[in-house]
Amino acid sequence: MEKLKLGIIGCGSIATWHAKAIKMSKNGILAGVADAKKENAKRFSENNENVKYFDSIDEMLKSDEIDAVTICTPSGFHASVALEAINAGKHVLIEKPLAITNEDCQKVIKAAKEKGVCAGVISQHRFIEAIQELKGFVSGGKLGKLITADLLMKYYRSQEYYDSSAWRGTWALDGGALMNQGIHGVDLLLYIMGPVKRVFGCINTLTHDIEAEDTSVATVEFQNGALAVIQSTTSIYKGFPRSLTISGTKGTVTVKADNISRCEIEGLDYNLKPENAVVNSFNDPKALDISGHAFQIQDFIDAVINKTEPMIPLEDGFRAVEVINAVYSSSKTGKAVVLNQN
User: Fold this and answer.
1) Which of 28, 150, 202, 309 is surrounded by the fewest CB atoms within 10 Å?
2) Band of the pLDDT at 279, cuts 50, 70, 90?
3) DSSP 8-state code for residue 156
4) Angle at 337 between CA 329 and CA 242, to 5 degrees
5) Could you tell me which CATH number the domain at 126-284+320-338 has?
6) Cis previous bond, 97, omega within 30
7) Whether the Cβ atoms of residue 199 and residue 323 lie closer than 8 Å to each other
8) How far apart are CA 323 and CA 70, in angstroms?
9) Which CATH superfamily is domain 4-124+290-312 in?
10) What is the DSSP letter of 331?
11) Domain ranges in the chain?
């Protein structure tokens, strides 16, 4: 069986999950790690079976030992590192967000197309069983005409969390609660509801000493006419599971954390499943479930080997970033932002 040799760029906390997922794959090999700071790569190597570490990112990208890379740097560096990797002919899988700015997202998309490399963005929550079930209800018309959606992301992050890394909570390298923690929910909302027509939002920084927002509320109008409300914060003690409710003319479904907690659909007798053990990433960023990353990294490996498109292309990552930046822009101007996504 053909094996894909993967490298990880950026050796922070999320890189550990990428390493685990690569090792779980059936046809991927973790062939090396690199970081802007050599000592970080060395330390990561020592904690991960002494996998090879490169002295620099540039050294990794020049190496024939690496076919593809996953990018786990601080968010503000995603685009620049991705462009370097793409120009070096490497296939790339980028942690969320694809980039901080709309312009950088478009640059990465353009470069990947021109170089002909396989490229995707991490949105592992799409692969939650309950989300796939909800997607099936909507795609199959079970909810009828879509009317409203409610996305609640009331999380908790301490000041110590933001102080732990200088890039956290900065506009240049992170964005606020919506861009960092909230982008997963925004991606799910767009995945279920479709492209966005316009956005109106308001943001504030209420409880943390950071540049960016820790609280936001937005209303979204979709191309299909449905409306949504988004709430995102890292200021609610001690944090609650994400909740996504989709309502149509024939029913309503709520996915809370990783389970369908409400399902009322005309003509359907739905038995709610017992709640699984809740993964408390809404108040502990280290408490993540590996299954989503494992599924998506396996999909990426298969896409590279089989020369197909990954399940979540860069364009999907851009749409989520575009909506979030529209919330930020709307809050600044006090006016709705028209997107007309397709």
Assistant:
1) 309
2) very low
3) B
4) 75
5) 3.30.360.10
6) yes
7) yes
8) 24
9) NAD(P)-binding Rossmann-like Domain (3.40.50.720)
10) H
11) 4-124+290-312, 126-284+320-338
